Every structure is written in C-alpha cells, then in structure tokens.
Amino acid sequence: MLEQVIVAGFGGQGVLSLGKMLAEAGMEEGKNVTWLPSYGPEMRGGTSNCNVIISDDWIGAPNITQADAVIAMNLPSMIKFESYVAPGAHLFVNSSIIDRKATRDDIHVHYIPANDIAESLGTVKAANMVMMGAYLAINSVVDPETVIDQLQIVFGEKKAHLIPMNRKCIEAGAQSVK
Q1: What is the pLDDT of residues 107-126, one digit of tens each?
Q2: Who has the most CB within 10 Å: 67, 87, 121, 135?
Q3: Residue 63 to residues 37, 53, 84, 116, Cα–Cα distance (Å)
Q4: Strands (E), the chain
Q5: DSSP character for 82?
Q6: Where are the domains of the chain?
Q7: What is the DSSP letter of 11?
Q8: Are 131 and 144 in contact (CB under 8 A)?
Q9: What are phi and psi of 154, to 5 degrees?
Q10: Long-range CB contacts (< 8 A, 24+ apart) of 77-81?
Q11: pLDDT of residue 41
Q12: Could you count the other beta carbons within 10 Å of the beta carbon of residue 43?
C-alpha cells in the first residue's frame, strides 16, 4: 500500500493539522509515513500545504508529483494542485468557498461543503475534519478511530471538550461522499 496525499489551503484552515494527524495516525498503525509542510512567512491567510505519504514499504522521498488524493480547501489550492492528481485518483474540493468546478474529466472529484457542514455542527474551524472524514470514507488508508485518538493527543485535557464535535465533523464528512 502506498498513499500520497496533498492537503492545501490558506493558513488557519487547519491544512497542516489535517496532514499531520493523518501522518500520525498512519505511524500509530505501524505504517511508514512522511509529512512535508510548506507555508509562507505570513502564516494565517497565506498559502499552506503539505505532502503526506503513508506506505507499508520504505518511502524514498517526501515529494509528491502524482497524488492519490488532493484535498483543496480554497480556490488557489485547487488551481495549483489539480494537475498533481494522478489519473483515476481523487480531488476533494471545499465547495463552501470554491465555486468553480474541476477542469479534468479523468479524476474523481468530490465537492464537499466543508465550511457549511462544520459550522452547522459548532464551528467552521473544524472544516478540515469534515474534509478528513470525506477523504477517509473514500481512501481508507487509516482507521478514523485512530485519527480520533490523535485528536486526544493533540488537544490534551485542556481542549478535550472539542473532541466530540470534531468526531461529528469527521462522521459528517464521511456521510457527504456516500
């Protein structure tokens, strides 16, 4: 098994967090992983993306040129990374803020109103977890429960009250693509 994912959006959308939790979940399940973040100096509001590779075998390099999935949280990210999606692979589009359709017809495109779903469940800040749920429903590279376990580690006791809402967002994201 080899899964190569690009997660991209604006700083502050939880792009790097989504990628890191995915990588941590893969590592927790005994897989080899890489997580390669990239972001501008302006952080919030600037561009941000990361490459995540999860594999049963050794990983040669952390760079991705042909992705099994791209998760685009904003329009500039969709424009930039749509061409990275391998033929037959998946593009996940945050249709709450991206009003444009993908240009390729050789990939599977999933339009998820992530911001709207997250807001209806408590906070738009969890839109990244809606996209995580949608991604995991299509590409079951790690168990969603392992991701929930990672939330417990990331949030700690101080923010543990946020875990049920994040779980609901992951579940709602999964439902959005079924």
Answers
A1: 999 999 999 999 999 899 99
A2: 135
A3: 10, 9, 11, 32
A4: 2-10, 32-39, 47-55, 67-72, 85-94, 108-112
A5: G
A6: 2-176
A7: B
A8: no
A9: -65, -45
A10: 77/8, 77/9, 77/47, 77/49, 78/102, 80/8, 81/6, 81/8, 81/49
A11: 64
A12: 11
pLDDT tens for 165-176 read 999 999 999 999
Please give the class, per CATH, of domain 2-176.
alpha beta
Least Cα distance to 91 among 47, 81, 18 occurs for: 81
pLDDT in tens, 65-84: 999 999 999 999 999 999 99
Q: Letter for the amino acid at 91? A: L
In order of 8, 34, 54, 105, the CA distances from 61 in angstroms are 19, 8, 12, 29
Q: At what angle do helices 15-28 and 144-155 cross, to 10 degrees?
A: 110
Length of the chain: 178
Q: What distance in Å separates the CA atoms of residue 42 and residue 176, rounded to the nearest whole number?
A: 32
Q: Residue 38 in contact with residue 80, Cβ under 8 Å?
A: no
Beta strands in 11-152 (DSSP E): 32-39, 47-55, 67-72, 85-94, 108-112
Q: Going by C-beta distance under 8 Å and a sequence separation of 6 or more, which residues neighbour residue 17?
A: 128, 154
Global confidence as pTM: 0.94
Query: How far is the C-alpha of 20 from the C-alpha of 50, rounded, in Å?
Result: 9
Largest CA distance in the chain: 46
